[in-house]
TrEMBL record:
Signal peptide: none annotated. GO terms for biological process: mRNA processing; RNA splicing. GO terms for molecular function: ATP binding; hydrolase activity; RNA binding; RNA helicase activity. This is RNA helicase.
Length: 811
């Protein structure tokens, strides 16, 4: 059976990799062309030996297989046709001298005829001319016969080529259909197995089947909700239209007044016309005055354009510039106290007897005392009943917070930390969704009106302060505010928490604080600077939980991880610049990036609440109240709407969910992102042209990795380098937290990092060198310290490699 050219090239490339150890497209093309010019497998084997291959049994088998698979042009011509073609060529060669001699004979006859014309009579002349015409007619007939024979031969050859091409296309189409049907059967089998596996691993609820009346009632309610949604959209659209119409009518009224003043200037108007003109002016002035009063409120507004009738007011422009200059470089920042977040005194809800008994407990029972001081304690019976009655789910995406929760649970249960996950073997275990800023109503509606159980948190009153004007450099403003609080407030009054966007800003702020406090010496109390971010070593992260010495103040420089996941004792002052780093995905370019973006109102309130955990606190927001109420979104954009969906689409396809555009997402992602994810999976051969999962796609779905990394692992088996590629994929899955670059040893850290790039190798080869070197030292921790590499990240890469290798064995 002859193969398609693309499949044949891939097969020859794989065989050359086994025989020679390398393969190039030009070499593959040369070998295929060489096989077409040979007449037998032994002849082809001799030519392969001549170009450098060894005459082994593998080479002989390769020669026989490729000779059978390579299509040949002359395969459709039998022996009789070939003999007929050779005879036709021979006749054509023989006719050339015969035509020459015939032409010469005719010329001589014409000369003789001319002489006879002069010698004989007119009758003989006519007979000679008849002879000449007969000779010309015979020559014309011969030419026509030759042309007819030639066209007949060409038409036969063209018909043979069309038949051969049609048969090959039919064979290719049949092979493609068979392959697609085989993939479809395997895909259905995979969907069935995955559904059975998930069904066996998940506890099934014994819910009664709804009756026909209940189904009709559900349909009626769904239709009613859709009608209510349409009415709401209609009202919102009407309000937006009225705003635009008001502005348009105001502009029309102004144009009418200006036109009448220009057209009737110096013309005496009647009393009715005068009343109408005055009425229009009064209406216009009232509306204009109302809008100006709304604009002149005590709040921040965007600067004006400084243009009046095409001219630029330079004095006004530079006056505002000087005002901005003072705001940027002032030593202090002016704040406005805007509001106070009320606290929740949960201890008042505790029975007096329980408090007295809690105070009388011994030190041995301190854990039980702590339980009674928790905000959840008064609601313990209601919570246990809710957990008993309803199905609940739990999420905790942050590793640091998950570690803290695990340590607390192990302390509560009195067991060792690090037991096997047995939730799938214990269907009676239930989990909980818990968050301080979660949109609970949204989740409740999505999960069929699930009940909501609210527990008020332990929070003291918090004063909210805004700046008078926006700050041009929020990093410098945060440092100035921290020093301002440290100098003006008594030491020991409370610690400071500063929210920044990432490691670079935290290290810069740490340098500035150290530089400014070092110059003041003993004039100010001691300021302890404690950074906290993901790439920081664990022993340095633990410093933020150490108690502050007497007479000193601690300032914690943290990312948004300190918003909800960590509770640091002693924090009284919070500085909120209003920014955070958020992962964003651009479907058009296919690139993910971390962008500094404004936070949401929910995040701002959560940051402010950090200062009211252990006592009354203050939150200093480095933006105006106008920015908070008008520029910030209510909630953070869901991650599914700003991330690459290729992995999600691959998982849904493997579960048998094909209608992705109409899938019931809680927060539907953009359609463009879904289409780009499908295009990427098609380019990786995970989907066929009909959007169905292929055999390669089913193998890629088994790996807990990005689809591109999964395809890299699948393709590595063909080149026999799976172990190296799995190591690279495991290191890439860890992210950018492999290297540690301390401020005081940057040169040493950069030198150690460049040593892994010896030979001008790329990042992937360097990561492979790092993992191989660490493995050769028997996974030494000291080796990581000497090369400025995070031990925690390397251990996580080791776990990832073990899980990937297990997935490779299953697939």
């Amino acid at each position: 059976m002859q193969w398609k050219m693309g499949d044949l090239k891939a097969w020859v490339s794989d065989k050359l990799m086994l025989l020679l150890g390398y393969s190039r497209p030009t070499v593959v093309q040369y070998v295929i062309g060489l096989s077409r010019t040979t007449s037998s497998p032994s002849d082809f084997l001799g030519k392969l030996v001549d170009i450098g291959l060894s005459a082994t049994s593998e080479t002989r088998a390769f020669a026989e297989e490729i000779f059978a698979k390579v299509p040949r042009k002359a395969s459709g011509i039998n022996l009789y046709q070939r003999q007929e073609r050779e005879a036709a060529l021979l006749v054509k060669k023989q006719r050339r001298p015969m035509l020459f001699w015939r032409l010469m004979t005719t010329t001589m006859m014409l000369v003789v005829a001319l002489e006879m014309v002069l010698m004989f009579l007119q009758l003989l002349r006519q007979e000679k001319m008849t002879l000449v015409r007969n000779v010309s007619g015979r020559r014309l007939i011969i030419r026509k016969m030759k042309m007819t024979r030639h066209h007949t031969f060409v038409n036969r050859e063209e018909e043979r080529r069309v038949k051969r091409r049609t048969s090959q296309n039919e064979d290719d189409d049949s092979e493609s259909d068979e392959e697609r049907l085989r993939d479809q059967r395997e895909r259905e089998e995979l969907e069935r197995k995955m559904k059975e596996r998930y069904a066996s691993a998940t506890r099934k609820l014994a819910e009664p089947k709804p009756t026909k009346r209940e189904e009709e009632e559900a349909v009626r309610r769904s239709n009613a909700l859709e009608e209510d949604g349409i009415d709401t959209l209609r009202k919102v659209s009407r309000q937006e239209y009225l705003k635009k119409r008001e502005q348009k009518k105001l502009e029309e009224l102004r144009d009418d007044i200006e036109d009448e003043q220009y057209l009737f200037d110096g013309v005496k108007l009647t009393e009715a016309e005068y009343r109408e003109m005055r009425y229009k002016k009064e209406i216009y002035n009232l509306v204009k005055k109302r809008s100006e009063e709304a604009d002149n409120t005590d709040e921040y507004r965007m600067p004006e354009a400084y243009d009046e009738d095409g001219g630029v007011n330079q004095e006004k422009r530079f006056a505002v510039a000087l005002q901005r200059y003072r705001f940027v470089f002032e030593d202090q920042i002016d704040f406005i106290k805007a509001s106070v977040m009320d606290g929740v005194n949960f201890e008042e809800e505790l029975p007096t007897e329980d408090l007295e008994e809690s105070m009388a407990k011994s030190a041995f029972e301190k854990l039980q005392e702590d339980r009674k001081t928790l905000p959840m304690y008064p609601y313990r019976d209601e919570l246990l009943q809710a957990v008993h009655d309803h199905q609940i789910g739990c999420t905790q995406p942050r590793r640091v917070a998950a570690m803290s929760v695990a340590a607390r649970v192990s302390q509560e249960m009195g067991v060792k930390l690090g037991h096997e996950d047995i939730t799938r073997f214990r269907p009676d275990l239930k989990l909980l969704i818990s968050s301080a800023t979660l949109d609970a109503e949204k989740f409740s509606d999505y999960f069929d009106s699930a009940p909501i159980f609210k527990i008020p948190g332990r929070r003291f009153p918090v004063e909210i302060h805004y700046t008078k004007a926006p700050e041009a450099d929020y990093l410098d403003a945060a440092v100035v505010t921290a020093l301002q609080i440290h100098v003006t407030q008594q030491p020991g009054d409370g610690d400071i928490l500063v929210f920044l966007t990432g490691q670079e800003e935290i290290e810069t702020a740490e340098e500035i604080l150290k530089h400014r406090t070092r110059g003041l010496g003993t004039k100010i109390p001691e300021l302890i600077i404690c950074p906290i971010y993901a790439n920081l070593p664990t022993e340095l992260q633990a410093k933020i939980f150490e108690p502050t010495p007497e007479g000193a103040r601690k300032v914690v420089l943290a990312t948004n991880i300190a918003e909800t996941s960590l509770t640091i004792d002693g924090i009284k002052y919070v500085i909120d610049p209003g920014f955070c780093k958020m992962k964003s995905y651009n479907p058009r370019s296919g690139m993910e990036s971390l962008l500094v973006t404004p936070i949401s109102k929910a995040s701002a309130n959560q940051r402010a609440g950090r200062s009211g955990r252990t006592g009354p606190g203050k939150c200093f927001r480095l933006y105006t109240a106008y920015n908070y109420y008008n520029d910030l979104d209510d909630n953070t954009v869901p991650e599914i709407q700003r991330t690459n969906l290729a992995n999600v689409v691959l998982s849904l396809k493997s579960l048998g969910i094909h209608d992705l555009l109409n899938f019931d997402f809680m927060d539907p992602p953009p359609a463009e992102a879904l289409l780009k994810a499908l295009e990427l999976l098609f380019a990786l051969s995970a989907l066929n042209k009909l959007g169905e999962l292929t055999k390669v796609g089913r193998r890629m779905a088994e790996f807990p990795l990005d689809p591109m990394l999964s395809k890299m692992i699948v393709a590595s088996e063909k080149y026999q380098c799976s172990d190296e590629v799995i190591s690279i994929a495991a290191m890439l899955s860890v992210g950018g937290s492999i290297f540690y670059r301390p401020k005081d040893k940057q040169v040493h850290a950069d030198t150690a990092r460049m040593n892994f790039h010896t030979g001008n190798v790329g990042d992937h080869t360097a990561l492979l060198k790092i993992y191989s070197s660490w493995k050769e030292t028997n996974y030494s921790t000291q080796w990581c310290y000497e090369n400025y590499i995070q031990v925690r990240s390397m251990k996580r890469a080791k776990r990832h490699k073990r899980s990937i290798r297990g997935a490779v064995g299953k697939s």
